[in-house]
Design a protein that fits this description.
About 40% of the residues lie in helices and about 15% in strands. The chain has about 240 residues and is an alpha/beta fold. The chain binds farnesyl diphosphate. Farnesyl diphosphate binds next to helix 1, helix 2, strand 2 and helix 3.
C-alpha cells in the first residue's frame, strides 16, 4: 500500500521554544527573538494551510509566562496584538481561528479582537488555527471539571453519566481532532502543561532548533518523522 507522507489532514501542536536563547546567541535582547519568532509563526501557519493541515495549535503564552520581566511581557503582548490585527484582516483564507486559554487577564482591546475573530471565522471549513495564550492544560481540565460540576449542581447532569466525551466537550478544543503530533523546538523535552488531555496519544517530536530558526523544510522533516512512527493507540499494531 502506498504510504501517505503528506501533512494533509493532520492535527499538529507546536511548542515554540528558544526565542530567548536564539537572541542571546546573537548578542541581541530576548525580545528580538520573540519578534523573529512571530515572523516564523506567520510563515509556518501559511505553509501548514497550503499543505492542507486540518488543525494547528501553537503555544504562544503559558499561565507561567507572567513571571517574565515587564518589558519582555510588554513586547510579547504587543506582538500578539500585531498578530491579531493581521488575523483580523486575514479574510482571504478559509481558516477558523480559536484562542485557548483564560482571556480575561489579557488587554480588553485584545479580548475584543479575539472575540470578533473567533465569531467571524467560526463557520469556516478550512484549517483550524488554535492559539494558546494565557493557557495551561491543568487549568483547562479544571475549567471543564468546574463546568460539569456546575451542571450537576443544577440537576442537569448525573455525575455517574460523566464520560470522556463529555469532559472533552468542555475543553477549548471541543469538537476538534486530537493532535497527531506535538513538536517542541529548542531541545527541551517536556510537555510544559500544553494540551495535557489532548496529547494522550500524540507522537512527541523534539528538535534542537530554536523556534526563530525553524523553516518550512523543518516542518516537512517533522511530518516525515511523524509518518515514520508506528502508531498503535494501545493496540499491538500491524
Ligand atoms: C518561547 O521562547 C517563546 C515564548 C514564551 C513566546 C512566544 C511568542 C511569540 C512567538 C510571539 C507572539 C505570539 C504570536 C502568536 C505571534 P522562550 O522565550 O521561552 O525562549 P528561551 O527558552 O530560549 O528563553
Amino acid at each position: 500500500m502506498e504510504q501517505n507522507h503528506s501533512a494533509e489532514g493532520l492535527s499538529i501542536g507546536i511548542i515554540m521554544d528558544g526565542n530567548g536563547r536564539w537572541a542571546k546567541q546573537r548578542g541581541l535582547p530576548r525580545t528580538a527573538g520573540h519578534k523573529k519568532g512571530a515572523d516564523v509563526f506567520d510563515d509556518i501557519t501559511r505553509y501548514a494551510n497550503e499543505q492542507g493541515v486540518r488543525a494547528i495549535t501553537y503555544y504562544a503564552f503559558s499561565t507561567e509566562n507572567w513571571s517574565r520581566p515587564a518589558d519582555e511581557l510588554e513586547v510579547i503582548m504587543d506582538l500578539f496584538g500585531q498578530s491579531l490585527k493581521r488575523l483580523y484582516k486575514y479574510r482571504k483564507e478559509n481558516n477558523r481561528v480559536v484562542f485557548l486559554g483564560e482571556r480575561t487577564a489579557l488587554l480588553p482591546a485584545h479580548q475584543k479582537m479575539m472575540d470578533e475573530i473567533e465569531s467571524e471565522t467560526q463557520s469556516r471549513t478550512g484549517m483550524i488555527l488554535n492559539i494558546a495564550i494565557n493557557y495551561g492544560g491543568q487549568q483547562e481540565i479544571t475549567k471543564a471539571a468546574r463546568e460539569l460540576a456546575q451542571l450537576a449542581a443544577e440537576g442537569k447532569l448525573n455525575p455517574a453519566d460523566i464520560n470522556e466525551d463529555m469532559l472533552e466537550g468542555h475543553l477549548y478544543t471541543k469538537g476538534q481532532p486530537m493532535p497527531d503530533f506535538i513538536l517542541r523546538t529548542s531541545g527541551e523535552m517536556r510537555i510544559s502543561n500544553f494540551l495535557l488531555w489532548q496529547c494522550a496519544y500524540s507522537e512527541l517530536l523534539f528538535t534542537d532548533l530554536y523556534w526563530p530558526d525553524f523553516r518550512r523544510k523543518h516542518f516537512d522533516e517533522a511530518v516525515q518523522e511523524f509518518h515514520s512512527r508506528n502508531r498503535r493507540f494501545g493496540g499491538i499494531g500491524e
